[in-house]
Amino acid sequence: SAVISQKPSRDICQRGTSLTIQCQVDSQVTMMFWYRQQPGQSLTLIATANQGSEATYESGFVIDKFPISRPNLTFSTLTVSNMSPEDSSIYLCSVVQPGYYGYTFGSGTRLTVV
Amino acid sequence: GENVEQHPSTLSVQEGDSAVIKCTYSDSASNYFPWYKQELGKRPQLIIDIRSNVGEKKDQRIAVTLNKTAKHFSLHITETQPEDSAVYFCAASRGSGGYQKVTFGIGTKLQVIP
């Protein structure tokens, strides 16, 4: 399966600031997915990122708050903008490789907003 | 959209006993059902999956069953060991290959008591 490098692994940020999370995949993938996992909760899809097109956001998530870039087939970033304590969560990127159905997840970014 | 319900939310078993986690889904078009294991502080990892054209799949001590008519699927872990302690997520999706929107259950925290 693919190997995903996600960084930073954790950060503590001041409210009102922004944080950009990066995911680098060791192989080319068509789609990358960004998830949020609040403490003790399940995984909620934020958006799906295609290379060369705008990301598709799920209900409750908007581009102004969570802008995503996907400049090539191996890399994506998620920015959490104008952060508030409610944004404290773990953010995970994931991919599905061609011919393989299961997700591979990055190691996650544990964000704390103070 | 798809809705996946999972129960129980917590499960404690004695080492060596079996554990069963059950999930139901709402979208009859869903055709792929993965299970993920998430150890504390780590990323979710795929442990077993099943497609809609199969009723049962087994991999050593873990097995998954699918009842398409009733729209439910279950994870069975036999001869549980302390290292099986983790949160388990069921999921459902439709689509094939590169794109699939995956909906996760709320998770089951399994504790195996030595």
Architecture blueprint of SSEs:
The complex is a heterodimer of chains A (114) and B (114).
Chain A: E1 4-7, E2 10-13, E3 19-25, E4 31-37, E5 44-50, E6 56-57, E7 68-72, E8 75-80, E9 89-96, E10 103-105, E11 109-113
Parallel strand pairs in A: 2-11
Antiparallel strand pairs in A: 1-3, 3-8, 4-5, 4-9, 5-6, 7-8, 9-10, 9-11
Chain B: E1 4-7, E2 10-14, E3 19-25, E4 32-38, E5 45-51, E6 56-59, E7 62-67, E8 72-77, E9 86-94, E10 101-104, E11 108-113
Parallel strand pairs in B: 2-11
Antiparallel strand pairs in B: 1-3, 3-8, 4-5, 4-9, 6-7, 7-8, 9-10, 9-11
List its traits:
A: 114 residues, mainly beta, 4-stranded antiparallel beta sheet, 0% helix, globular, B: 114 residues, 6-stranded mixed beta sheet, 5-stranded antiparallel beta sheet
Description of the molecule:
The complex is a heterodimer of chains A (114) and B (114). By secondary structure, chain A is an all-beta fold. Chain A has no helices and eleven strands. Chain A starts with a strand and ends with a strand. The model of chain A has no long low-confidence stretch (mean pLDDT 93). Chain B has 114 residues and is mainly β. In chain B, 0% of the residues lie in helices and 57% in strands. Chain B is built from no helices and eleven strands. The relative contact order of chain B is 0.34. The interface between A and B is medium-sized, with 22 and 22 residues.
Structure summary, number of beta strands of chain A: 11
The SSE string of chain B, one letter per element, is: EEEEEEEEEEE
Report the uncertain regions of chain A: none
Largest sheet of chain A: 7 strands, mixed
Proportion in β-strands of chain A: over 45%
Molecular shape of chain B = globular
Average pLDDT reading of chain A: 93
The dominant shape of chain A is globular
Indicate the percent of residues in helices of chain B. under 10%
Q: Name the quaternary structure.
A: heterodimer
Low-confidence stretches of chain B: none
Terminus-to-terminus distance of chain A: 36 Å
The radius of gyration of chain B is: 14 Å
Determine the number of helices of chain A (DSSP H or I, runs of at least 4 residues).
0
Ends apart, CA distance between termini of chain B: 41 Å
- Main interface: chain pair and counts: A-B, 22 and 22 residues
